[in-house]
Amino acid sequence: MAENMLPSKTRRGMNEDDEILPKLGYVEPYEGESISHYLGRLRRFKANSLPSGYSLGKIAGLGAVTGRWEKLYFNPFPTRQELEALASLIGVNTDRLAEMLPPNGVTMKPRPIRLCAACYAEVPCHRIEWQYKDKLKCDRHQLGFLTKCTNCETSFSIPSDWVKGECSHCSLPFAKMAKRQKIY
Ligand SMILES: [Zn+2]
Ligand SMILES: [Zn+2]
Fold first, then answer.
1. Which tens digit of pLDDT belongs to each residue from 113-164?
2. What is the CATH topology of the domain spanning 22-99?
3. Domain limits of the chain?
4. How far is the CA of 149 from the centre of ligand 2 (A)?
5. Rounded to the nearest whole angstrom, what is the distance from the C-alpha of residue 140 to the centroid of ligand 1?
């Protein structure tokens, strides 16, 4: 009982731990996944539940930047510092995060949003390479990209909004659109 009479230890050392950046719940990236699609999944992950790209940018100390990345707008191009700030928050390696962006010297075409439905049937994500300006077809499947729903012709929404992997208007699953893709 004598121990209880001792003055409690100072808590100063522990307060420093409280001040480190909040870490978000980890979400495993898919191979080839675009940063837009990844950030959408990351935000919607239950433990994170962040309503917008802006809310994520705010905790990362990046302001509106992550919201622009979700729209696939990379001008000005993401800096190493910005990627590091986000990487430490979400527990993903900075180089791995950089792989979700177009590589050096590759021009992006952010609109229209493209889809290879055959790829999506295999790995359910939007791939960054689909938006390369010089890419005319999916090299894996030798199929032309889709830019709108094969049923109702609605354009695809930005990949961070692909919650269920289906057309936002008629709910046709992306994977089912593969049979209407043309051999290129
Ligand atoms: Zn494909
Ligand atoms: Zn549709």
1. 999 999 999 999 999 999 999 998 999 999 999 999 999 999 999 999 999 9
2. 434 Repressor (Amino-terminal Domain) (1.10.260)
3. 22-99, 117-180
4. 5
5. 5
- 3-state class of 127 per DSSP? strand
Kindly state the tokens that stand for 23.
Answer: 């870490």
Ligand 2 being an ion, which residues bring their Cβ within 5 A of it? 149, 151-152, 154, 167, 169-170, 172
Note the pTM of the prediction, 2 decimals.
0.88
CA of residue 30 to ligand 1 center, whole Å: 15
Q: Summarize pLDDT for 58-70 with one digit per residue, the tens.
A: 999 999 999 999 9
> Which long-range contacts (C-beta less than 8 Å, at least 24 apart) are formed by 73-81?
73/110, 74/101, 74/102, 74/108, 77/101
DSSP state of 95: H
